[in-house]
Amino acid sequence: MKINKKKKVLILGSGALKIGEAGEFDYSGTQAIKALKEEGFYTILINPNIATVQTSKEISDKIYFLPLTSFFIKKVIDKEKPKGILLSFGGQTALNCGIQLFKEGILERKKIKVLGTSIESIIQSEDRELFRRNLNRMNIKTTKSFVVNSVDHAISYALQIGFPIIIRSAYTLGGLGSGFAKNIHDLKKIVNKAFSYSSQVVIEEYLEGWKEIEYEIVRDQYDNCIAICNMENFDPIGIHTGESIVVAPSQTLTNSEYYKLRELSFHIARDLKIVGECNVQFALDPKSEDYRVIEVNARLSRSSALASKATGYPLAFVSAKLSIGYGLNELKNSVTKTTYAFFEPALDYIVCKIPRWDLKKFYGVSNRIGSSMKSVGEVMAIGGSFEEALQKGIRMLDIGMLGFINNTKNKKKIESIHLLKHLLEKPTDQRIMYLEEALEKGISIKEIHLLTKIDLWFLYQLDNIFQTKKDLLFYDDWLNIPDELFIKAKKEGFSDRQIASLFFDEKKNESIYAIEKKIRKYRKQKNILPFVRQIDTLAAEYPAHTNYLYLTYHAVQHDIIYEKDGKSVVTLGSGVYRIGSSVEFDWCCVNALNTIKKESYRSIMINYNPETVSTDFDVCDRLYFEELTLERVLDILDLEEPKGTIVSMGGQIPNNLVVKLHENKVPILGTSPSSIDKVENRYKFSKAMDDLDIGQPKWKELSDYNSIYRFVEEVDYPILVRPSYVLSGADMSVISNHEELEIYLKNKVSISPEHPLVITEFIKNAKEIELDAISKDGNILYYAISEHVEFAGVHSGDATLVYPPQNIYLSTLKEILRISKIISKHFNITGPFNIQFLSKENVVKVIECNLRASRSFPFVSKVSHFNMIELATQVLLGRKKNKKEPDFFTTNFLGVKASQFSFSRLQNADPILSVDMTSTGEVGCLGHTFNEAILKAMISVGYTIPKKNILISGGPISSKLDILNVCKLLHEKKYILFSTEGTNNFLSNNGIPSIRVNWPDIKKDQNVIDLIKQRKFDLIINIPKNLSKSELDNDYEIRRSAVDFNIPLLTNTRLAKAFIQAFCNLSMDELPITSLDEYI
């Protein structure tokens, strides 16, 4: 029976993107809200992630940018009085909130119905002990495991099971708090850490070498069950599924194994009374049909998003409809429009998911992969064979790899066979490269299998690619390759550039790009072209037309007919999520697609990220789940012949293609490619600023030591040092003195004209300010100016942003606008752009300009109630638009954007803010005062208001002076302050009592690390003296222990001051519960 319509339903989002809980929940939540609205429900969304599509006013009826804690959810419930609540579409965050509301009796008291799977069933799947008992009752095998409540219990049970064992935390996501223990020492360390994230810890047998298989199951309230997709991990048990390459459908299971696990999945879904979707994970013995159930997720998950995109089955949409009472046989398949949802999708292609890591951005972190997630994004490639899908997927990672083979620029050759075998046995984020290296060195497939436990079938497919490379190299010139071999290579996923690289000779005066262009021309002449296939969920068994497309060489004709009427507009997506490019660019792409449709053009999207809304079935007129490489984009544009291509919405990947697309006569909508090139090139942009008499910090690109020392003498310390051409601050350092510079230069492999360093003067205590704007023909139509809370030195992607600005002189704002108008006019900008400024003592300098949408566009658009991307897209399409003045001088509210960090996932990483970006997500909260907005934002990214004890390690004297007044405030508010030696003396000299604690290396009473382990502190403030390695190492143990024992940590004085002033001047009960539409 369906529940009454026209009722209010509360949806809980997942909050900021973090490792283990990322953009997939924007996709699933957006689909769920659309499904409910289609049925006439009034939707109320709580999600502080301001960059998401689901928090757009055209998606939800009511949006609350509030922390996802029971305190705030209860307040919204009291205000809105919803009749139903959806918990399955916001990841572990939403599920844990729902369980807490249930345990506190809120749902029962307020008569709120949990839509879909019941709370009791969710608890049965989340509580490890209940889950194990339940499955044992059904005679379904689970791993031998014990729930433990102390370290001593853990040791006792571990000895019963036998080492090695795996440790897991209940009610967590992405393997948080998990790990492998080979001995008692490892066990103690991991269990202690696990208890910081969950009150329930499980130790279980480690099924080394077993396969990991997943099933996505949908069940309705009438007990109808279907398997949407089954997936197989390329890597064996022991590597988290989020860290593994995953293939759909499974490739190495027998028919008997497939159906056995499918039936077990149905049995579990029925027993748990799942209504909607669940994910069942199995371990399967490769030597028999023995199995174990690892876990069940009674909600939409990362795997659900992959399964939905892999099959074309709208899982989240269907699950939301089932949650309000529909049966599977009552729902139309919204992709095909001709069949019903009560069917199991059929796949006539292979899908490959590959994770992306950004571990080099984190000082101290190991690149080993295992039971806990470290990856920050993933790609999904579709091919007619495993080889084709895998090679496409590797290129999609956007880490410079050409495919499985010939990646000489991306890897250091490993001379030692012994070391290579060790690296195969102990997997790292470079695993796929080492597999190619092993084949190159002649290690047999069987030995690789013994070392890695990867199934032989997968290894033989990799060997196929390797053997084809050898076949290609038999010929001394690519022109001599027979057509049959050329086609075979293309079917195995070889790109034109990859083939070109095989025949590149440094001695000849011809670049790889030049060879690639010739290969493309030759291929087109020979009619060696990919064909467009549609994903219709039916493997073409029934006639159906869909807009969900991919290209393959395993086809003989196109599945669709092209209009070629110039009424299509292609938007290039943002590709894989990584640190520096995430859901904010997907928001930009989706809004661009919506505007293109409104303006009566066909909207075409090219993207390959399964976590995104832009790769959803109903967002555009045609979706190409494809690579964002020059070759593939040109293949699609040749077929589409669009009016133009938009490159300014998807971040850096589309921007990097602009010049080469222009060379290939592709019409680019908006700012000219030559202007984009001038701004992207540091020399050209700097010269333009000099010509325009616009100030900028002094800098030079230098390639020898003497030049470096001479320039440093000229500008003085501190300086900013970075390799030429970096993104998101990769490998940048602030150097404070000669000794640090010596250490930095010593650690650099080489400095040469080919590998120069960029040295920039670093302006201390400068305010960083950003301008986001839209121009047409060089004239600014609309702009938004925001300020950073932190001084310059914290990457703009990690900084806390305030809009409208609260602490900038009017004369500074006028100067920023004056400079921006000059830059816009000079480069004749049409479309979105972003400029970053430094301001000190009212002197304004430009530090960066991007002729594309920036990561702050969703934030400023939502706070200002003005969709800047809609205006930008209209301008790109040639529409005449009038200038609009922003009203931030008269508004009575503001927004604060705070960054989410995932250091708890990254063992040994130093949780310090610096010029290198490390945040994985963001939130944005609104308030009528700065204190209100920042307090909500900080709580939204995991901070809590301290109850009693605060540890302060104040850093240099300038920092200590900076936080003196807030230390006085904390003392006045009756907080007990603890401090390290220097800070203790400073506070005492200023009349503020504090309890002295000893440094980590002083093994006496009141040792700071012992106190952290005992969880004596509610907040830790640790300010490094500078960003030199020696200083960072000094305080590292304190910072790292804070993260490992889940204690809130602040490492920036200005942010610490802002947070302390907020929670000392505002109580939680004083925070108003206000929806986005109420801020006017």
From TrEMBL:
**Annotated catalysed reactions:** hydrogencarbonate + NH4(+) + 2 ATP = carbamoyl phosphate + 2 ADP + phosphate + 2 H(+); hydrogencarbonate + L-glutamine + 2 ATP + H2O = carbamoyl phosphate + L-glutamate + 2 ADP + phosphate + 2 H(+)
Q: Which enzyme class?
A: ligase
Pathway the protein takes part in:
Amino-acid biosynthesis; L-arginine biosynthesis; carbamoyl phosphate from bicarbonate: step 1/1
Reported EC number(s) for this entry are 6.3.4.16, 6.3.5.5
Matching entries from Gene3D superfamilies are given as:
3.40.50.20, ATP-grasp fold, A domain, ATP-grasp fold, B domain, Carbamoyl-phosphate synthetase, large subunit oligomerisation domain, Methylglyoxal synthase-like domain
One family name in Pfam for this protein: MGS
One GO biological process from the UniProt record? L-arginine biosynthetic process
InterPro entries from the UniProt entry? ATP-grasp (IPR011761), ATP_grasp_subdomain_1 (IPR013815), CarbamoylP_synth_lsu_oligo_sf (IPR036897), CPAse_ATP-bd (IPR005479), CPSase_dom (IPR005483), CPSase_lsu (IPR006275), CPSase_lsu_oligo (IPR005480), CPSase_preATP-grasp (IPR058047)
- Protein role: Small subunit of the glutamine-dependent carbamoyl phosphate synthetase (CPSase). CPSase catalyzes the formation of carbamoyl phosphate from the ammonia moiety of glutamine, carbonate, and phosphate donated by ATP, constituting the first step of the biosynthetic pathway leading to pyrimidine nucleotides.
User: Which family does the similarity line name?
Assistant: Belongs to the CarB family.
Q: What is this protein called?
A: Carbamoyl phosphate synthase arginine-specific large chain
**Naturally occurring in which organism (per UniProt):** Blattabacterium sp. (Tryonicus sp.)
Q: What is the lineage of its organism?
A: Bacteria, Pseudomonadati, Bacteroidota, Flavobacteriia, Flavobacteriales
